[in-house]
Design a protein that fits this description.
16% strand, four-stranded mixed β-sheet, single chain, 13 helices
Length: 373
């Protein structure tokens, strides 16, 4: 990883180079050992967007696999899945997966980069013409719908935000670490009702690189095995006659657990993509992780927090940790399984479920990881 910054600075390319160097050092190998490179970047057409040109700029050569992967927030797990397939088929031996982003630029608000994603044509163009700019107002509509359908309350959203912050307090990589209580949450300004500022992820400039290989000579002293992956793409049309937001996604978790030969009871920690507080609630229920309890009640009772039976987003997630799309939950899963969590370490954590979503819950991806014996 690179340091996660709330200030303008290095470009995505420079950050990707830093993260890749750090990953090589961590694995104890040279750049010439890499024969596969998968690159992910934030959505939107931006001149500094990371792409396959990173291979040349980053000093790679002789690659047998080189691709840019894009499924929005599900991209990271898709990259790991693609790397696994490549290694198992023999089409590559050592694959590096890199995600880098630098949305914070001088003279612009933190969310302005994302507010202009999605283009100006089709349904996104109609939304933009009506004043729905970017993800915050869209997810506000989704949140209103979820609260109505599930008889949820603002206190459910508050519980997610305060629980994430309680984890972030002990994460030196988190960009927001000040303690947060319910009063502090409700004092935060409303951005797009019912989403407050503290319901929204914190974009950062940063990068993460992960190396995938079956070669026992490659890797950190503590290796993490890929036990199972799964994907599900509901393909929502968002017109009358069908639920526009929810349903679907559970199959990806079922597939990942089945491939791993595990059940939900075997999972020690869960790391979910949480660009907004409501997404944690949605995924806990859709992925059947609450043992039948309403998600809001499950979080309010402390099950996802320290000492709970399902420690979730233990680095603070994207609400208080840092927002690097799907790399955020994967990075924290690796920290936990390698035993590097220090004060936030989940005791005896050997298995992790990582979840990623793309768009407006249009794409789901799941990854089951296990600490190697």
């Amino acid at each position: 990883m690179t340091p996660m910054s709330l200030r303008p600075g290095d470009s995505p390319l420079e950050l990707a180079c830093q993260a890749s160097r750090n990953a090589l050092a961590d694995a104890g190998i040279e750049i010439t050992d890499i024969d596969g490179l998968l690159v992910g970047s934030s959505q939107g057409v931006r001149p500094d967007r990371l792409g396959v040109g990173f291979a040349s700029s980053g000093g790679f050569s002789g690659l047998r696999l080189l691709e840019h992967v894009e499924i929005k927030g599900a991209t990271t797990i898709a990259m790991i899945q693609r790397a696994q397939f490549a290694v198992e088929s023999g089409s590559a031996r050592v694959v590096m997966c890199v995600f880098a982003d630098a949305p914070l630029v001088a003279g612009k608000a933190a969310g302005s980069t994302y507010a202009h994603s999605g283009g100006h044509s089709g349904s996104r163009g109609l939304e933009r013409a009506g004043g729905v700019l970017g993800s915050v107002p869209t997810y506000a509509l989704l949140t209103q719908r979820w609260l109505h359908v599930n008889a949820g309350t603002p206190e459910d959203l508050c519980a997610v935000a305060t629980t994430a912050r309680a984890w972030a307090v002990d994460n030196p990589d988190a960009v927001v670490r000040a303690p947060l209580d319910a009063q502090g949450y409700f004092d935060s300004p409303m951005i797009s009702e019912p989403l407050r500022r503290l319901d929204c992820a914190r974009p950062v400039n940063g990068a993460v690189a992960v190396i995938v290989s079956a070669d026992p000579a490659v890797g950190h002293a503590v290796r993490v095995n890929i036990r199972g992956t799964g994907r599900d793409h509901p393909i929502r049309h968002r017109r009358a006659g069908a639920e526009s937001w929810f349903g679907g996604g559970r199959r990806c978790v079922d597939d990942a657990l089945n491939a791993a030969g595990m059940t939900r009871d075997d999972v020690d920690t869960v790391q979910l993509y949480d660009p907004f507080s409501v997404v944690t609630l949605i995924l806990l229920e859709e992925y059947a992780l609450t043992r039948g309890a309403p998600a809001g009640q499950f979080v309010r009772e402390g099950h996802t927090g320290r000492g709970g039976n399902l420690p979730t987003n233990t680095g603070g997630g994207q609400l208080s940790g840092f927002y690097l799309q799907g790399m955020t939950p994967l990075a924290e899963a690796l920290v936990q399984l390698r035993g590097d969590g220090d004060a936030r370490q989940v005791p005896d954590a050997t298995t992790a479920l990582v979840g990623g979503i793309g768009g407006r819950l249009d794409h789901h991806a799941a990854l089951v990881l296990e600490r190697a014996a």
